[in-house]
Structures are given as C-alpha cells and as structure tokens.
Design brief:
390 residues, alpha+beta, 4-stranded antiparallel beta sheet, 13 helices, 6 strands, 60% helix
Length: 390
C-alpha cells in the first residue's frame, strides 16, 4: 500500500509543472487556457519520438519545453493579434494539436518500456521507486526555485501586473500583448515538461492522454488557492509551493478513491466532482453564513465645525452605516453635504464630535490617521495629490 501512495506522489510531482503552468495562465494572467490538453500530449509525443530514436533524456527535455512553448505562442498570437477570445484561441490550438501529435507519433499509442530516460539516468537508491520519487522531487524543487526567481524579476512583476491591471501597465509603456504571449509560452512549456515526465513515469505515450488533464491542473490550483486563503499567505513563493502541495493532495485523494475499490472507469467522474466540490464549497459556505462580516461600522456620527460660535456648521448629523466584507459603497451628495467630511472621519484626518467608528471589530474613533493605516487607505481624485477611500 505504501508503494501505491509513493507512485501517486511521483505522479503528482510529474504533473506539478503543468499545475504551475495553469497557475501562470489562470492566476497570473486570468486567462482560461485550454491549450494545456494539447501541449501536455505534445510534450509526451516529443518524448516518445526522441526516446525511440535513442536521444539522450537531457536533450529531449528542452525539446519538449520548446514544443509546448510554441503551442503557447500560437494561442497567444491568436488571442492578442487576431483579437479572438482566449478560451476559443486555446480550443482552436488544442484541436489542431491533436492532428499534429498524431502525425508525429505515427500511431495512437507508443510503448516506452525499457527505454532509458530521466528516471533511470541517475541511481541514488537501489529501490527503483524511491529513486524515481527522489529524482521527481529534485526536478520539482529546482523548477519551483527558478519560477520563483523569474516571477520576482522585472519581467515577472510585469507579467503579474499585466494580469492584474492591463490598463495601468499599458499606460506605463508595457507591451501587454507581448507579455501575454511570453507568459502563455512559459505556461505551456511547463505543461510540455509535465508531458515529458509523465510519459516516462507511465512508460508509454497515448494520443488521448491529454484529454481532460486541464481539470487535474485546475484542481491543484484551486486547492492551492483555498490553502492560501486559509493560511493567509500572499507571497508568490508560497503560492508556487502551495500549487505543488495542491497537486500532491489532489493525486492522494484520487489514490485513496482507487484504494477504496472504486471502479477505475469512474475515475474521471470522481475527478470532475472533486474539482466541482473545491470550487463550490467556499461559495456554499459563504452563502450559508447568516451573519455577514462587518468591515466598517459607523454609529451615530456627528461632526460640528466651530461648535458654539456664530459660524457653526453641522456637517454630519447622526450618521450610522455598516459596510460588509466584499461590498462596494458609493456615497452621493451635493457639494457641502458632508461626503468628504465622512471620508476624513473614517480614515482619521478628522475626529467626530459625537459617535463611534469600528474597523474590523476594532474601535478606532480616537485613533489618529497613521494608526488606522493598517486597516484603511485613501487615494484622492486629484492625481497630483495621490486618487476616494478603498
């Protein structure tokens, strides 16, 4: 039984690069890239072709990544230059790759039994399975370190900024189209690397091995997203680690399902239902919560300028307001109605005459502006001042 789960661990590590590729396309660029199904098989096809012709494994590896990158470039060009929806662009390239893969493979299935590959190139342990798992771990750790470094460079920050706010990056002179093309190339190069590893893990390449594989990668990314939220981790390095952890957990769940005696014919359905559960559970939990979390609570706020003098002005009179998590609130009023005064009181540059303010259940009524800055920030409409409360 331990060998069964070790095998699942090895498969999870082999699929890790694909999960990282989906993380780049979906979480960094917000692009649902379906090219994955084709570029994954393409990596396996190049692997099979190279191994049959007795190419060294270290030569085949970059060839697989280049092939996957080329598929990503095709998707990126169709999306950015022809202005075709990213999802449709991925479907078109994926469909075309099926024929390309079949032509290069020559037949639907190619066995790779007894072919020397990456998992037999180095002997660390006498136990073959242990040796393969350790090699897979080394490849995964090296890949995570490289990707973490790339995403922290100026180029990587430009990628993340393009996915987060393309209008801003365009105004800063960044070529969004080129960044997206390169990002999709990197994502599909990683997917091609997974095809390279999995083909040698299972000792065969099949023309249909990529069908639905995007669901597996998506499940890993969604698990990582849930773990990131629960553990309050925001750094890009931890997000990369959690994607690999998500891949491992995903495969362990499937391995546990098979260990329970479930018919393997049901495995794809179980996979789909598991991903559905991951996506739906947070939303169902949120919908079932009877009490919404109040982020900002304003109670009976009044503000009187020049109180007790002849020029006394009542700017705010007994204002109460609750702003819940996830809400967007717009305050509308004529000039002099007290909008700015209310903003000033919330962020701390003005203190109320009466009433109280709580931010995330913390009483802040008497706190100065700089002490509230860890909860609330302000930008002004005038660009020279800096740009309404967020």
């Amino acid at each position: 039984m331990s060998q069964f789960y070790l095998t699942a661990l090895q498969l999870a590590l082999c699929l890790g690069p694909m999960a990282l590729g989906i993380f780049i396309s979906m979480k960094v660029f917000n692009i649902p890239d379906i090219t994955t199904d084709g570029s994954y098989t393409l990596g396996a096809v190049v692997t099979a072709t190279g191994l049959i012709q007795h190419w060294p494994a270290w030569v085949i590896l970059p060839a697989c990544m280049c092939a996957g990158a080329l598929a990503g470039v095709c998707t990126g060009v169709i999306h950015t230059k022809l202005k075709i929806d990213a999802l449709l662009a991925g479907i078109l390239v994926m469909t075309g790759l099926y024929s390309v893969n079949l032509i290069f493979l020559g037949r639907s299935n190619v066995p790779l039994i007894n072919q020397p590959g990456i998992f037999t190139s180095v002997t660390i342990f006498q136990n073959v399975l242990f040796n393969q798992v350790v090699i897979a771990i080394c490849i995964t750790v090296l890949l995570m370190m490289i990707l973490n470094y790339v995403l922290k460079t100026d180029f990587g920050i430009a990628m993340r900024a393009t996915g987060n706010n393309p209008v801003m990056t365009k105004s800063m002179g960044i070529n969004n189209d080129m960044i997206k093309i390169l990002g999709l190339a990197i994502a599909n190069a990683l997917t091609g690397l997974s095809g390279y590893l999995v083909a040698q893990y299972q000792n065969f390449t099949d023309i249909n091995m990529g069908i639905g594989i995007v669901i597996t990668g998506l499940g890993s990314v969604l698990i990582a997203d849930a773990l990131k939220t629960w553990m309050h981790l925001t750094s890009i390095g931890w997000q990369i680690v959690l994607v690999i952890v998500g891949s491992i957990l995903f495969q362990m769940v499937l391995a546990g399902t098979l260990a329970m005696g479930i018919d393997p014919n049901w495995l794809k359905l179980v996979t789909a239902l598991f991903v559905l559960m991951i996506v739906a559970l947070p939303r169902l939990t949120s919908a079932l919560q009877k009490v919404e979390k109040v982020m900002i609570s304003i109670r009976h706020i009044s503000k009187i300028f020049n109180q007790g003098k002849i020029n006394e002005v009542i700017a705010l009179d007994d204002i109460s307001l609750d702003i819940h998590q996830g809400e967007f609130v717009v305050i509308i009023g004529a000039n002099g109605s007290g909008k700015t005064t209310l903003m000033n009181i919330i962020e701390g540059s003005e203190l109320p005459t009466e009433g109280s303010i709580s931010i995330k259940d913390t009483e802040v009524t008497a706190l100065p502006e700089y002490k509230r800055s860890k909860w609330v920030a302000r930008v002004f409409q005038n660009p020279t001042n800096g740009t309404a409360l967020t």
